[in-house]
Amino acid sequence: MSPQPQAPSPMGPVCQVSGRGLPLKGHDIDTDRIMPARFLVAVSFEGLEQHLFEDDRKADPGHVFNDTRFNGASILVVNTNFGCGSSREHAPQGLVRAGYRAIVGESFSEIFQGNSAMLGMPCFVASHEDVERLQTLIAKTPETVIAADIASGAITAGSLTLNAVLPPALRDGFLSGQWNPTAMLLADFDQVRNVAARLPYVRGF
Amino acid sequence: MAATLFQKVWDAHAVRVLPSGQTQLFVGLHLVHEVTSPQAFDMLRQNGWKVPFPERTFATADHIVPTLSQKRPFLDMMAEQMMGSLERNCRDASIKLWAPDNDNQGVVHVIGPELGLTQPGMTIACGDSHTSTHGALGAIAFGIGTSQVRDVLASQCLALDPLKVRRIDITGRLSRGVFAKDVILTIIRRLGVHGGVGFAYEYGGETIDAMTIDERMTICNMSIEGGARIGYANPDQTTFDYLRGRPFAPQTGDAFEHAVAWWREMASDPHARYDDRVTFNAATIEPTVTWGINPGQSVAVSEPIDAAPDDEALAFMGFKPGSRVQGTRIDVAFIGSCTNGRLSDLEEAARIVKGHHVAKHVKALIVPGSRAVSRAAEAIGLHEVFIAAGFEWRGAGCSMCLGMNPDKLEGQQVSASSSNRNFKGRQGSPTGRTLLMSPAMVAAAAIAGEVVDVREMLEGVPA
Ligand code: SF4
Fold it and tell me: Model-level pTM?
C-alpha cells in the first residue's frame, strides 16, 4: 500500500468520521511495530506515513497493510492493547499522515489513545464480538463505508451497527474542537503560577 | 481522610478542572531528550509560545548517542542533526542541557534520580514511557507524547484524567540470585501486559521496603510494560538517605529536614483505600526470562514454556510449546538501559563475571546508564573486571535497548538483555530476538554462551 500523504491532522470540531476500514488483527501491537525506532532518527514527523509497519510488511507480504484492496482506508480496526510500549507520537503521526481518521479497537494503551486524541484521531473502544464482526465484514467487503458518530459512539457499517465508547473528556474535546488543549492550559495562567508558588519544592524548602 | 500518595500529589498539583472535565495538572519536573522533543519545540515556535518555567525543565541526549566514540560531530549525520537541534532548542529556551561532552549526561531516567532532580511528591513528565522509573522515589511520573511535551513546555501543565490505584504487595524475602528484575517480570507475567491500563501501581510490602532505590527503580521502570503508566513506591528513610547530598536535592540541613517532613506527609496513609490489591510472595519468585515478543511472555528459568500458546511469538523466537529457554545459545549479551544500567547492576554482573571469560561466539556489551555510573564503576575497577573477561566497556546511553545508535542486533541474532522490551525489532534488527533477564543472568549467559540459571554460578561466590 502506498499511502497518500495528507494534511497532518484535521482542525476544528470532529463530530463524525467516515470512510473505508482496514482490519488489523492481533493483540498487544506495540508502537515499535507501528513505527520502528530507526525512523525516529529525524527532527520532524514528515514522511513517517511511508514507514508504517515497515518491518512487519517486509516480513510478511500478506500483511494487511500490503493489501491493495484497503488502499485509501481511513478507519483502522484493531484488537486489544493496541499501541502499547513506547510513548512515541511518531506512531499515531504516521497513521494520521497516511490518512487514518479514527481507530476502532477492543482496548488501547493510554499513552497511545491520548497521543491520537491530540492529533484529532479518536480511538473508539468496542466489545470483542463487535470488533470481530466489523473486522470480518470489512475483510470480506473492503468497500463498506464505516461511519462513526463521536457524540453517541454509534458505529455503522453496512447492516452492522455497534456501540462504541470514547473517554468522555476526549469525546467532548472532539465535539467542541478543543481536542488540542494548549490554549485551555494557557487560559488562566495566574492560577498556574499560584499552584507553583504553593508547592514547597518550587518555592524552596 | 486517609489518602494514597497518588491522590495527595494529584491534589497538590491540580490547577483547575478544565471545561473538558479533565484536570489541569502542574508538572513539577519536565525531562527532555533528543528524540521526542524537536517537533514540540517547532510547534512552540510556530505558535509564538514561550517557555514560562525554563528552570523546571532539564535535557540530556541518550537515545541516539554512539557509545564507541562520543566525539562530535557524530558520524551519523541525522543523529548529529538531532543533537544540534536539541542544543539550539535548549539554548533558545534557556533550558539546562547535559550533552554527551558533559559529566552529567546519561539516560534521562538514570540521571534524574542520580542528580537529585527526582524527589518525592513531585509530578514528573517526560516524552518517554519509562518515566515511570522516577516513581521509585515517591513521585508521580509518567510518559507523554510529543504534543504533550509541547504543552508542558508552553504551560508547565497537562490535561489529564486521574487514574485508579492498584496496591501491589510483595511479602517475604527474595532468594539468592533473584533480583528486582525477576520481581517485575513476574508481576507482568501474572497481571498481563495490559492489566495495568487505567491504574497507577503502588508497590509496597516487606520486599519493597527492604529494597534499595536502584532496585525500586527497576520495578517502577517496567510498570509501563504491564500497561500502568505510573508506578511508585512510598518515600521512606531509604529514599531520604538516597537523596541527601545529591546536587539538586535541598542542600542545607534545615531545608533538607523541611523537605523530609513534606515528603513523609505525601506518602500513602496506612488506611488509604485502593481500587485494587494484589499480593505476591517473594519466596516463590525465581530467576525469570522472557521467551516471547512482549514482556509478559516469560517463565522461571527452570520451567518449560507453559503459557497459552502464541504461535506468532513462538515462531518468531524459534521456540515450541514446552521447550526451555535455559540452554538457548545466545549471540549478544547487553547490560545497560534505564531498567538495569546503574552501578548496583554492574556490581551484580561483575560478581558473576570475575575470573571467567565471555564465550567465544558471544559479543558482550556493558553500557553504563550515565557518565556518573561509568565514573563510579571505573573508580572501583569494575571496567577492568569486564574488559578482562572480554566485555566491551562502552560510553553511556540507551544503546542496544532500542538500537537507534550504531549498536544493533544483526539478522536473527539472539540477545540476552538487561533492558525492558523484547518487542519484534526492538534491538535494531527487524528479525533480532531478545531474551529479557536480570543483569546477573545476562552476565552468566555471556560466560556460558547460552541461557543458564544464575543460581548455579553463584555457588561458590561469597554472598
Ligand atoms: S534505555 Fe531504553 S527504555 Fe530507557 S529511555 Fe533509553 S531507549 Fe528508552
Answer: 0.96
